[in-house]
TrEMBL record:
SUPFAM superfamilies: HSP20-like chaperones. It comes from Micromonas pusilla (Picoplanktonic green alga). Pfam families: CS. Transmembrane segments: none annotated. This is CS domain-containing protein. Residues 208-247 form the CS domain.
């Protein structure tokens, strides 16, 4: 366990850490024998997460991507003055066969967010209230189960789970109402769910695919082989996501999601 520092370029407060970690995780090797084994395990992992069959096109796109998975230990909000403390791990750690990180798992458990974490894990603090995004120091001295932020995280995580339980109870009650409505044939006039707005262009081609499991949303956008990360601009807000690919050949194809 060590404390690391990094320079934060102006205007790249959000990307600087993630880009550094992507490069680190991209070079991380696991214990599986062949890339074919890793790819098969990765496909299984994606299908379990999305609940959908992953076709070869989506698999090829996902295989070329290296993402960083944040694990929220201290969930930010008004109660924390929008302070967040996150663990950052390799989202392909399981498919790479990386070893279980007992220290990171123990910390997550102390924070009330038990998670099975494999491979290297990086801890960082941010302030994010949608209007401001700042990276703040996190030191080794704070790596203690008795640290104030850990106790606050545990309290908030437990409260979050209790609130989630209340919501689930309401959903079950609504499910009973839905069953009653079905008996009365009140569902007959409801429209069939369609693709998300904007996912189909004027020619009928699908611009992007998406899936959701709980609070996790995955958006997959096919791009040209020459597209680099500098060509992709993504802005995520509380009630909006905007994704733009700036190297698209036609002006009308640059904005993918809005």
């Amino acid at each position: 366990m060590e404390e690391l520092t990094m320079e934060i370029p102006e205007g790249r407060e959000m990307e600087c850490l993630l880009d550094t970690l992507k490069e680190h995780f991209r070079n991380a090797s696991g214990t599986l024998g062949t890339s074919a084994e890793q790819k098969a395990l990765f496909r299984k992992q994606l299908e379990e997460q999305s609940g959908k069959k992953i076709d070869d096109d989506m698999m090829d796109i996902a295989s070329r991507m290296q993402m960083v998975q944040p694990v929220a230990l201290l969930p930010g909000g008004k109660a924390t003055n929008w302070e967040h403390v996150n663990l950052y791990v390799d989202d392909r750690g399981i498919s790479k066969g990386l070893r279980r990180n007992d220290r990171a798992c123990g910390l997550a458990l102390e924070c009330g967010a038990p998670t099975d974490i494999v491979g290297d894990a990086f801890l960082a603090r941010i302030l994010d209230d949608d209007d401001r995004f700042e990276r703040h120091d996190f030191t080794l001295d704070e790596m203690s189960s008795s640290a104030p932020w850990v106790k606050r995280a545990y309290t908030l995580q437990i409260a979050k789970k209790q609130n989630s339980g209340d919501v689930q109870e309401q959903i079950r009650a609504m499910g009973g109402m839905k069953d009653a409505a079905n008996v009365m044939n009140l569902q007959d006039n409801l429209p069939e769910p369609g693709p998300p707005p904007g996912s189909i262009d004027d020619t009928g081609s699908q611009l992007y695919k998406w899936s959701q499991e709980g609070e996790d949303v995955v958006v997959v956008v096919p791009v040209r082989e020459t597209t680099t990360k500098a060509d992709v601009k993504c802005v995520v807000k509380k009630d909006r996501i905007r994704l733009e690919v700036t190297d698209a050949p036609n002006e009308g194809e640059r904005l993918i999601v809005d």
